[in-house]
Amino acid sequence: MKLHHRHDWNLSPSEAVALQQELRSEVISDRPIDLDRIELVAGVDVSVKNEQSQAAIVVMTYPGFLPVETVLAQRPTPFPYVPGLLSFREGPVLEEAFEKLKTVPDVFLFDGMGIAHPRRIGIASHMGLWLQRPTVGCGKTLLCGRYKDLAEEKGSAAPLIDRKETIGVALRTRTAKNPMFISPGHLADIPTATELVLRCSPKYRLPEPIRLAHNAAGQFSP
DNA sequence: GCGACAG
DNA sequence: ATCTTGTCGC
């Protein structure tokens, strides 16, 4: 896929934070995703093993969820895990994977946050700037913000609030299971991102594209 | 200063 | 995220 190269990745933690402050104003998080025109949805995930990172992108039809393309990319893990700076750890290998992708998905679902981030630029938002296509952040645990208890039934949601600002939702994708934390990445908004993730989770807690990407990323070559 | 902290 | 077997439940 064609990528809009934005910057180099070899930055120190403090330089990375400064870059996020510069890029945050470019993130568009109030634009509805055109759910009626989606035909392809991609799931993005990265697995780390022995200093090596492997990225997987699985493109699936929507709403049938039939896999149409899977790409993998490997690289040495370049950056330590620092809460708030995940994109600088997974960005390099993801960039390589995106370049291998031939299909052009209508939207990308990421394993991690979108604007539900201290500086409102989690990995889904950050990579969205490179992709220039709609992206959604789907976290399994919270990075920042608070939410009120929500009902046990699948589909229940509660606003995620941080510093008086609504940054996403806690969404129950499976009855009685822990909620997922959904937020717009880039070129998306909270209501449509929430609806899309719910529609992409017909059977499991993880959205189908991310679930498959997670499985593929965890498969390292001997 | 203290606590919290995606993957 | 990763280290790791069996096991309780639908």
From TrEMBL:
It is found in: Cytoplasm. Mg(2+) binds at residues 45, 111. Keywords: Cytoplasm, DNA damage, DNA repair, Endonuclease, Hydrolase, Magnesium, Metal-binding, Nuclease. It holds the Pfam family Endonuclease_5. One of its GO terms (molecular function) is deoxyribonuclease V activity. It is an enzyme of class 3 (hydrolase). The keyword Hydrolase applies. The keyword Cell inner membrane does not apply. It catalyses: Endonucleolytic cleavage at apurinic or apyrimidinic sites to products with a 5'-phosphate. The record marks 81 as: Interaction with target DNA. Its EC number is 3.1.21.7. Its cofactor is Mg(2+). DNA repair enzyme involved in the repair of deaminated bases. Selectively cleaves double-stranded DNA at the second phosphodiester bond 3' to a deoxyinosine leaving behind the intact lesion on the nicked DNA. PANTHER family: ENDONUCLEASE V (PTHR28511:SF1). Belongs to the endonuclease V family. This is Endonuclease V. The lineage of its organism: Bacteria, Pseudomonadati, Pseudomonadota, Alphaproteobacteria, Hyphomicrobiales.
